[in-house]
Amino acid sequence: MSSSDILLEHHLRHARYISELLDRKMTSSASTTKPMKHPFTAQVEEVATSKSEINALILDYLTVAGYPNAAAKFSSEANLSPQQPSSAIHARQQIQTFIHKGEIDSAIHALNDFDPSILDEDETLHFALLRLQLVELIRQSRPGGDIGPALEFAQTQLGPKAPRTPQFLEDLEKTMSLLVFDHDNLDPSLAELLKPNLRQKVAEKVNIAILRRQSQRTDAALRHLAQMRAWSEEVVRKDGKKDLPARIDLGLDGDDSGGAENGHEPMITT
């Protein structure tokens, strides 16, 4: 089995797991008796959510996050219409994959092939990509390597842009510090530049920019629901007029799943 097939099965396994777990959560109150259940919990369990609605939320996540193969297969399994053409999702996925692998020049070329106006009209995003490319060049030059390519890139690509805003200049100066200090003993703020988190942040910004260009939502509906739920709980607790349990779980920890999938690993994003 190829690595892409393994990744596809990984994403599908989690999609199916969440779908089945949420479905069990919605139906467990009718078949399971638990003593002294909090009134609020009992009221929540009375709310019926259809399996098709749950599957639509999961398909929405796979589409927005950029998993074309998993989205296509899951939509077929769940008997749902695709939310975007696979080609559009594939383009976003390819660009994000380049970024996660540190191949920033390839990502920029792929993004320009997809829509050159994105970087032309978003100078902040363009600078973030170029800065990440500089980080990768510095990473390749250490320890003891040739720093010439990194210096030339900084002077020709980032130098002319940096004076345009104080943030650009600060980001460039911080990145250039990586050429001076030992990478094994960096200040935490500098060490962050060499961690995968920076690639992740830039990849997310690029994904959002492409979705906006396609007139698509930039966040999955699941994220909005989670944010709304957290905000609602905070407001109600501050108001103090509604009796709530001390803790309200989202119900995705697998406690009621019999342990078959408990302790599952997080979804891979690269």
Short description, anyone?
With 270 residues, this protein is an all-alpha fold.
Broad shape: globular
Task: Note the total helix count.
Answer: 13
Spatial extent as radius of gyration = 23 Å
The overall strand count is: 0
Q: Give the N-terminus to C-terminus distance in angstroms.
A: 18 Å
**Structural class designation:** mainly alpha
- Order of H and E elements: HHHHHHHHHHHHH
Describe the fold and architecture.
The radius of gyration is 23 Å and the shape is globular. With 270 residues, it is an all-alpha fold. The longest helix has 29 residues, at 3-31. Residues 253-270 have low confidence and may be disordered. It contains 13 helices and no strands.
SSE layout:
Blueprint: H1 3-31, H2 39-45, H3 51-65, H4 68-77, H5 86-100, H6 104-114, H7 117-121, H8 123-141, H9 148-158, H10 166-176, H11 188-191, H12 196-213, H13 221-239
Helix pairs in contact: 1-3, 1-4, 3-4, 4-5, 5-6, 5-12, 8-9, 8-10, 8-12
Which descriptors would you attach to this protein?
globular, 270 residues, mainly alpha, 13 helices, disordered C terminus
